[in-house]
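Workshop exercise sheet. Pairs work together: one partner reads the sequence aloud, the other fills in the structure field after running the prediction. Swap roles for the next sheet.
Pair: D.N. / O.F.
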Amino acid sequence: MTLPVGSPGPVVLFDGCPLCGVTGHDHVFDHPECGEVVDCRGCGLRYTRSRRLSSWAAIRRETPGPLLDVFIEKEADQVRDFRAILGRLHELGARGPLLDVGSMTGHFLSEARSAGFDTVGIEPDPWAAGYARREFGLDIREELLTEAAFEPGSFGVVSMLHVMEHLTDPKETLAVIHRTLADDGILAVEIPIIDATATRIMGRRHRHYVFDHTLFMTRTTCARFLEEAGFRIVRREATGRTLRLGRLARGMAVRSPQLGGAVSRAVETLRLDRVHLTVNLRDILRVYAVKRQATSPPPRATFRAPRRETAAPDPGTPGHPALGSTTRNGRRPRTGRPAGRAPRAPLPRRG
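Structure field:
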């Protein structure tokens, strides 16, 4: 559901837990942007139960207009991150058309096209979709995924980067993705997580608790969402984000005017505003998943720290391009005698 723009009071987003359906919950805090944040007593998922503010998608669709420069800068700053995701997809054997859910200004899709994918994007914000078409010449559909009418198995890759935490219909969205993805396709998801040290320390002041976030997931609850939707995780990585030093300093100034202001002035004086750096607090999770085969129950995914970009993916079900056919040391498994060689005859016993 989406909250109507201009709603006079809090509107309940979820009558029960969006993951397990249990109605019992424990109040965590009231947030001026997120609303009433609660923990499910059944599965532990943290979510926004009710809020006063309208959803970002509803606001942008009803009152479209140019995005602030900071949004475009943020997308442009993350090109390095986008290339890392696309590189991992290639390592996992991804092929076929790529659908990006929540394409925003099209920076990720532009990189995906440069990496060799045929691309289609879904973006409900009319201005952002127009920007992506105008600046990059991309195929962007101005609609929600649940409104689209793609044929089953249309895409070899579906990406959903920093979208899942905004959803008010996560199970329905994942069901559409499962139907839209080819049987040998790969799903790439990136979300903020709250079971990271930085998130625990900062609590409600952490940047994950922001306007329009409805789901505050952990590694466990994210995995359960995907597994119950029919996916099996083949790789996950705790990561950070690339940003310009100037934007980082301005963000610090908002949260801590005295310290952040000093840092911001120093960055401007030294002309370091456009220097890019990757800040990895391990509070962002990248997940790569494939469709689960109906004949084999999914094993529970274990968290794996990020490896170097050259690392091979975890082996799994034979025959899937994302899983390969090699062992952990990179050698092919021995499957029997070489073709054409007869078995060795037994030696005669000594008398």
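Discussion prompt: The domain at 54-291 is CATH 3.40.50.150 (Rossmann fold). What would you look at next?
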